[in-house]
Amino acid sequence: MNNSKRKISLKNIAALVLLIVFALFFILPFLWIISTSLKGDTQIFTIPPQWIPDTFNWENYAKVFDRMPFLIYLKNSVFITLFIIIGTVFSSSLVAYAFGCLNWRGRNGLFIFVLATMMLPLQVTLIPLFVLFKEIGWLNTFKPLIIPAFFGGGAFNIFLLRQFFLTIPKDLLDSARIDGCSELGIYWKIVLPLAKPALATVAILTFMFSWNDFISPLIYLSDKMKGTLALGLGMFVGQYVTEWAILMAASLLMMLPMILIFFFFQKYFIQGFTMSGLKE
Amino acid sequence: MNTFIENKKPKANYGKQTFTGYLFASPWIIGFLIFGLYPIGISFYYSLCQYDVLRIPQFIGLRNYEQLLFSDNYFWLSIWNTLFYTALRVPLCIAGSLLLAVLVNNAVRGVKIFRTIYFIPSIVTGVVLSALWLWILNPQYGLINSSIAYLGVQGPLWLLDPDWSKPSMVLMSLWSIGGGRMLVFLAALQGIPQHLYEVVEMDGGGWWAKFKNVTVPMISPVIFLWTILEVIFSLQVFVEAYVMTKGGPLNSTLFYNLYLYNRAFEDFDMGYASALAWLLLLITLGITALQFRLSKKWVHY
Amino acid sequence: MWNKIKTIGGIILISALLLALFIPSSKENNDGKIYIRYWYVTGAKEQIPYHVKKFNEIQNRIVVEPTALPWNEHEKKILTAILSEDPPDVINLVTPVAKWASRMALTPLDELIKKDSFDTSIFFPALWNEMNWQKKIFALPLYSNSYAFFYNKKLFREAGLNPEKPPSTWQEVKDFAKELTGRNSQNRFTQMGFIPQYGNLQTSILMAWQLGADFLLNDKKVDINNPMVIEAVTWEVNYYDDYSLKEVSSFMAGFGYADQHGFISEKVAMMVLDNTFIDQIKLYNPNLDYGVSVIPTFDGYETASSSGSWWAAIPRGSKNIDAAWEFLKFAVQEETQLEESASQQEILFPANQLAANDPSFIKGNEKIKTLVDMMEYAHSPTIVPLVHDIFWREFLSAREKTLHKIQKPEDALKQAEDVIQNQLDQAIEYDTYVRSKMNFGSLSD
Q1: What is the ipTM of this complex?
Q2: Model confidence band, residue C388 (pLDDT cutoffs 50, 70, 90)
Q3: Strand bridging mode C305-306 / C290-293
């Protein structure tokens, strides 16, 4: 990737400076958030901004648990996200298998159509789905959030997985077919195990989306005890009181699983984005 | 093979796998019928009605659309707001992350660190992103204004100023997604064969010539794909406006989806909201079709 | 090595998250008592309402489970709850009764009132008038707000004004405000006399009421573009001839709640505030030397104020109507309301007149007495019940536009009036249509 001759030229220094400026742009807000979450109320409103709090008000974090049923929301978020991941991974891999490993009439046309549905604004289906779920009694349950994930898991995931499946050598599949293995068997025993990295990526991207999803819980849930972390956080940014320190603490707590997962599974995150950048 | 769709195999294999093919694809197909096609159709019916879900729908023909198009200032305002936001965000996002990708690609050392740092904000989305930036952009005590106040400059009112509110949200959005998009372009850049650059060098071209004649054309499909996606995402902006500004100040952040949501869940006017939704669908289709048309001019496969 | 650590760490993380699934949620109750769910809209604090606690204490048959609803989404939540056919048994809201009643979302109370010979004259008339729809009663008022004019005596003295003579006309307010404005060395505001757009009560609406505007005629005709409203809005616009709107906005951006409130932190000298501020001041700035007077008005006109109404109702589909009714009756009776007011951190202004006029409520406090008296002049903020949200949205938008000098008052108001009228006509039409097709409001639903 590097050129064989590389001089430290002015251009390189300029590039480096730019890179550092951008890095600051991306990092500073984080540090500011952490710093704010530990401040007492009076220190937040200072000019110039105080980076290191005078006292480390760890109790701000405790107050989060007072102000919202954090643990219950955590549980709900985990529950919902878990099932969405399961549904998404399995159904999108099934569908991707059809597009990537099988050959059938109408396959290419349908695939383009699937991609085209990514354009659909979810507002168009929002209200009818709301009414539909009302009619079948699913309002105020987790079902409207979870069940749709089992039906294909989203065009983007299908696209990603298909990319990956296309790289599996056809001979492998064909020899299994000759040996009498059913397509489902091939899917389960050969393709899925090979595709573990890609599946992990789908799982992680799904996690990221579902953990932070605010709109679906907002629409379908009404009981306070059925809320998710995303919904709970929204409660804080309320009309009457904006308690900044506690809000920042709550945000960090909610981001914590995401940050940790990013830390441990960085590879898969990045893969998700890079895989869609490759020209295959 | 660098084609988007695979070449077809000999016809002999068709029949056997057709049934299986559709079987495996059926989850998506069924899902689309139930959660896609059906709602779209019903949505159109609702858009012709006065309906608030608590009571039965009343068919009123095209009255919702008439009202939308001819006597609803918020409609046009929200379209303007959304288009402005999109037009500001998409080019900045694509150009910015492309620039970053190019920089990182050519960095002397420590690529990994920069890559990671740039990517971290991507995990902050939705409500959390809104909450954080609500604080960062506080006109009196937020990070930005209090820092530059130290230097004697008075910062803008950001989210409280009708002229700055949309740019504020674009800024916030760029912070969040810039890293992820950069990774996409970085991967694409790393797939460009080196010898193409050397050809330009031999002809005496500098970095701009390289960029214009090699880089951009070679990754244009990726740029195109993500431009389309970014436009679609931008048109659907909602959470930030709902959480941070509720459409203000002076309705400067009343985005299309926020307006739709308000009509549906505050005014309880589902019919009108459905009409809004349908128009959004048409607008999205239109813009995407336009982009495909234009793509013939600059996208190389 | 590093990869191994990452993998192990990842597995531990996922296990920890999965553990969250085992967090216990609230348990089911099987002890023969009737459990009713009570959802109420909350502002800042989320203390359990007094009437809930007391009700649960004094009897054993019914248990009330309260849930506080954050302001932002409460309407949507209730909509979803009613549609899911498992609504709470009692709801406590602020938005107009008509909004919900006209949509058949509430259970009519007439028969329950008749059955118990419940005396409905105990409520302030301004509040009681909001509780009905199409000649049926759907809710009982719980609390109100009362507004009065608060002014900072210390700042008055510092500015050379007589602290015992608060302004009685708006012109005086304007003049006093000039004296009460202060700036620092960088020419930014340190204090201001009066900011019309700061506060819960819309100054222009208040003024329009004082000038005699009615906004809605005959329940059918919207009337906003009239001289009285124009005068009220123009007053506000002209107020900013003396100060830059941008500067004031920037000054206001630093305000917050509690001790950050503009009046409590002594940055604003005069304001129209509600009764809760008597206790807020005691809590956050007890040394504040202030007075409470009748709201200033225009020369020759009677003053006006606004009520605010928290009401409680029984949603359609509740499975415990009788128990809910018992709770409702308890919450509005004089004794409960008095005790509740006394026990809260912030004064809750009772909807029950008897409670409000009781000496133990007034506690010999002049300020409270003024607030009670102001209720006589109160108008309901539910100006156009059927399209309440639209009215307020349009009016506020028109006001903002005139304030920022984007439009002239007449034009902005006419625009608002047309939109509201249009929406109102459609709403009435829809309502008529629905009532001709659906069975409306019988108790045995």
Answers
A1: 0.81
A2: confident
A3: unpaired
- DSSP letter, residue B8: P
- C21 assigned to some structural domain: no
Q: Name the residue among C364, C340, C360 with its Cα closest to residue C350.
A: C340
**Which residues of chain B register pLDDT less than 70?**
1-16, 107-111, 301
Residue spans of beta strands (DSSP E) within C204-334: 215-217, 221-223, 268-274, 290-293, 305-306, 309-313
Residue with tokens 């128990």: C323
In a domain, residue B104? The reply is yes
Count how many domains chain C has.
2
Sequence-ordered alpha helix ranges (H) in C162-275? 170-179, 203-210, 227-239, 245-253
Residue position matching structure tokens 């989306």: A209
Q: Does residue B284 sit at the A interface (CB-CB below 8 Å)?
A: yes
- C279 and C135 fall within a common domain: no
- Confirm or reject contact between B286 and chain A (CB < 8 A): no
> Closest Cα to residue C314, out of C441, C168, C154?
C441
Whether pLDDT at A64 is above 70: yes
Q: Tokens 């406590």 belong to which residue?
A: C92
Residue A157 · residue A88 · CB < 8 Å = yes
Q: Dihedral (C-alpha) C108, C109, C112, C117: value to the nearest 10 degrees?
A: -140
Averaged pLDDT of chain B: 84
Q: Are residues C418 and C345 in the same domain?
A: no
- Domain range A62-275, its CATH number among 1.10.3720.10, 1.20.120.1810, 2.60.40.10, 3.30.360.10: 1.10.3720.10
The pLDDT value recorded for residue A81 is 93
Which band of pLDDT confidence, cut at 50, 70 and 90, is reported for residue A277? Answer: low
Question: Which structural domain range is residue C239 located in?
Answer: 147-306+384-427
One DSSP character per residue, B143-188 reads: HHHHHHHHTTPPPP-GGGSTTTHHHHHHHHHHHHHHHHHHHHHHHH
Q: How far is B205 from chain A (nearest CA, A)?
A: 16
Contact partners for chain C, using 3 or more CB pairs closer than 8 A, are A, B
Given an 8 Å threshold on Cβ–Cβ distance, is C68 in contact with A222?
A: no
- Residues C336, C419, single domain; the answer is no
Q: Where are the domains of chain A?
A: 10-57, 62-275
**CA B271 – CA C110 distance, rounded (Å):** 32
Tokens of C60: 């054993």
My answer on whether C75 and C110 are in the same domain is: yes
Residues from chain B contacting residue C437 (CB–CB below 8 Å): 56
- Which domain covers residue B274, as residue numbers? 72-298
| DSSP reduced 3-state for C273 | strand
